[in-house]
UniProtKB/TrEMBL annotation:
The keyword Acetylation does not apply. PROSITE patterns: HTH_TETR_1, HTH_TETR_2. One of its GO terms (molecular function) is transcription cis-regulatory region binding. Residues 16-76 form the HTH tetR-type domain. This is AefR-like transcriptional repressor, C-terminal region.
């Protein structure tokens, strides 16, 4: 090998590269077209691989979609759990921490635009998707994030900062009052809703949550 030249990749390394290229291309196409309308031929062209290579790696479109959901959702869940830990671990000012978390939770996450476009397709077309694909998304993402939030709320309750006899239900209420409520407003409003308004909506949700869960 010449000095300064790149090392040759092993066959295993090339397989990994192709798999990653297929996953990235699939996320782009599924996010744009949705599961039903996306075609294997289109994904193969986007990934610059043959359809045979794609089928060799993933078997069929459903298994490919499941792999895309699993990997993309896991990355987003890790980022959201990091938000939970940063804002809620070991805090004393619970109101300030929950508000900061709620406002950041509803803000766009750089680098995950395609993932959230994919999620919108899943939510809109869920009844037309194989049930196991929706289950994969829920378990890899929303349920995992809710479990992490539940754990932090339980810690705050143990420290006397909240009344949360059922932390999982409290986590569900928190998410419904913040991210779900803010998202509904953005989708249902007749006029464009800016990020400051969405974050204010989330903050109001946090205050409603605290009215129910703050210590007496």
């Amino acid at each position: 090998m010449k000095e300064g030249s790149a090392p040759l990749k092993t066959p295993q390394g090339r397989l990994v590269d192709k798999r990653e290229a297929i996953i990235r291309a699939s996320l782009t196409i599924f996010a744009r077209d949705g599961y039903t309308r996306a075609s294997i031929d289109t994904i193969a062209r986007e990934a610059d691989v043959s359809t045979r290579t794609l089928y060799n790696h993933f078997g069929d479109k459903a298994k490919l979609f499941a792999a895309v959901i699993d990997e993309s959702t896991a990355e987003v869940a890790e980022a959201q759990i990091a938000l939970i830990d940063r804002h809620l671990h070991g805090i004393e000012d619970v109101e300030a921490g929950l508000i900061a978390f709620g406002r950041e939770l509803v803000a766009p996450m750089p680098g995950f635009t395609e993932h959230f476009a994919l999620v919108r397709h899943i939510q809109a077309d869920g009844q037309h998707l194989p049930a196991e694909l929706v289950t994969t998304w829920r378990e890899s993402g929303p349920l995992r994030v809710r479990a992490a939030l539940s754990q932090r709320l339980a810690e705050l309750a143990d420290a006397g900062h909240l009344r949360a006899g059922n932390p999982d239900r409290a986590a569900l209420h928190f998410l419904a009052l913040t991210s779900s409520a803010a998202g509904d407003r953005a989708q249902l409003s007749r006029e464009p809703v800016g990020l400051p308004d969405i974050q204010d909506e989330a903050e109001e949700g946090v205050r409603a949550f605290l009215r129910a869960y703050a210590p007496e």
